[in-house]
């Protein structure tokens, strides 16, 4: 597994990307997932690119952004092209977006068809620029439940479309993460890993709260201390050799939480592989 941290974690911090990269490398992360807003705001810093990041021993697996699927086609194409151009600068082959701004149950057949068509158009553009377009499993979108996500993949029907599997939000949508992972596996290209104290606390991940500097963070927990069973889920992921995953942390005490979660993941994998190294079947 190649583990990344997300620069969105530091959205309200006064830190440079160099500060983040040095810390990530020192704490055994393999990559940095760039928030689209951060990538755009560094466009003038021409020395910052994939080669610069590689000097820290890191890569940028994905740029995470929000394509305007509900705007006119020209605006969508411009945003998609610009996002893929930025991804190319950082050596990222994946760009992430959300599947609209409405829950699947509130979306009419006509609106679903329109959004799927827009996603397909964006996928064609992304493919032309060497990128894959990943739709994140997320509430309030057409990828808010397992069945709606599967239907979306079928409706778009394009090889450049993939899934960013947000384990917490899959669980939030009512599916068992392990079963959903197996069902979506052919389309999964990246994972977001985070946890919550209980279902009653899921409100803390609503965008209006997450992006607010004064938003509530109570209920956000370390990866192995919340309601989602990551011991079982990570056992599934460790079966695969080529996996890109990001620790997506929105709360306080960023450095300690990220360092401890990454360390615990390494210990869990080492413990799982110990019998194999010892020659035990």
TrEMBL record:
EC number: 4.2.1.118
Statement: the UniProt record of this protein carries the keyword Lyase: yes
Keyword entries, A-Z: Lyase
MF terms in GO: 3-dehydroshikimate dehydratase activity
Transmembrane segments: none
InterPro entries cross-referenced by the UniProt entry: IolE/XylAMocC-like, Xyl_isomerase-like_sf, Xyl_isomerase-like_TIM-brl
Domain of life of the organism encoding this protein: Bacteria
Residue stretches making up the Xylose isomerase-like TIM barrel domain: 22-256
Signal peptide: none
Name this polypeptide is given: 3-dehydroshikimate dehydratase
Organism, as annotated: Mesorhizobium escarrei
Source lineage: Bacteria, Pseudomonadati, Pseudomonadota, Alphaproteobacteria, Hyphomicrobiales
């Amino acid at each position: 597994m190649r583990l990344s941290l997300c620069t969105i974690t530091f959205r309200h911090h006064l830190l440079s990307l160099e500060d983040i990269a040095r810390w990530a490398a020192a704490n055994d992360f393999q990559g940095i997932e760039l928030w689209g807003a951060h990538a755009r705001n560094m466009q003038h810093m021409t020395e910052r690119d994939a080669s610069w990041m590689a000097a820290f021993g890191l890569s940028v697996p994905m740029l995470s952004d929000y394509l305007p699927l509900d705007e006119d086609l020209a605006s969508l194409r411009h945003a998609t092209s610009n996002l893929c151009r930025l991804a190319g600068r950082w050596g990222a082959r994946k760009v992430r977006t959300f599947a609209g701004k409405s829950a699947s149950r509130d979306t009419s057949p006509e609106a679903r068809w329109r959004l799927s068509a827009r996603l397909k158009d964006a996928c064609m553009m992304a493919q032309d620029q060497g990128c894959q377009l990943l739709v994140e499993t997320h509430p309030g979108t057409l990828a808010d439940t397992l069945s709606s996500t599967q239907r979306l993949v079928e409706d778009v029907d394009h090889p450049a479309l993939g899934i960013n599997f947000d384990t917490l939000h899959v669980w939030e949508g009512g599916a068992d993460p392990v079963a959903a992972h197996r069902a979506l596996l052919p389309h999964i290209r990246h994972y977001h890993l985070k946890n919550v104290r209980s279902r009653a606390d899921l409100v803390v991940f609503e965008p209006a709260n997450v992006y607010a500097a004064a938003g509530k963070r109570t209920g956000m927990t370390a990866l192995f201390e919340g309601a989602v069973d990551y011991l079982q889920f990570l056992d599934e992921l460790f079966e695969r050799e080529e996996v890109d995953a990001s620790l997506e942390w929105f709360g306080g005490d960023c450095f300690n939480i990220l360092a401890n979660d990454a360390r615990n993941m390494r210990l869990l994998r080492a413990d799982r592989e110990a019998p194999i190294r010892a020659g035990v079947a």
